[in-house]
From TrEMBL:
InterPro entries: 3Fe4S_ferredoxin, 4Fe4S_Fe-S-bd, ET_Ferredoxin
Name of the molecule in the record: Ferredoxin
Residues annotated as transmembrane: none
Keyword list, A-Z: 4Fe-4S, Electron transport, Iron, Iron-sulfur, Metal-binding, Transport
Domain 4Fe-4S ferredoxin-type: 14-42
A GO term, aspect molecular function: 4 iron, 4 sulfur cluster binding
Cofactor: [4Fe-4S] cluster
Keyword check for Iron-sulfur: yes
Top-level lineage group: Bacteria
Function: Ferredoxins are iron-sulfur proteins that transfer electrons in a wide variety of metabolic reactions.
Length: 102
């Protein structure tokens, strides 16, 4: 049986996206990783590009900065809307959030 752990994935590039259709707007993700997540005027969370610009197109993905992996993974695990998707960039395998083993 295959098991993924945070430790096993720390050396791999991760990417993250938010499903705004399920976002409750509570702001947990913005608290955890304000460099990655931010509210738009609609009160929903979006990911930000490296230049800090909000990516408003549905399904927009960004690479997770190496120093924020654990914060982004924790946000995905605890997101009350279960709408933060963290996956391995190389093959799309879910690491945290919907579809992940943990
Ligand atoms: S933690 Fe989840 S539900 Fe809460 S604001 Fe962020 S994406 Fe939305």
């Amino acid at each position: 049986m295959r098991t993924e752990t945070v430790e096993q994935t720390t050396e791999q590039t991760l990417e993250v996206w938010v499903d705004q259709d399920l976002c409750t707007g509570d702001g947990l993700c913005v608290q955890y990783a304000p460099e990655v997540f931010e509210f738009d005027v609609d009160g929903l969370a979006y990911v930000k590009g490296p230049d800090g610009e909000l990516l408003l197109a549905p399904g927009s993905r960004v690479d997770v900065p190496a120093h924020l992996r654990l914060e982004v993974i924790d946000a995905a695990k605890e997101c009350p809307g279960e709408c933060i998707h963290v996956r391995r960039a190389a093959d799309g395998v879910p690491v945290a959030g919907p579809g992940a083993d943990q």
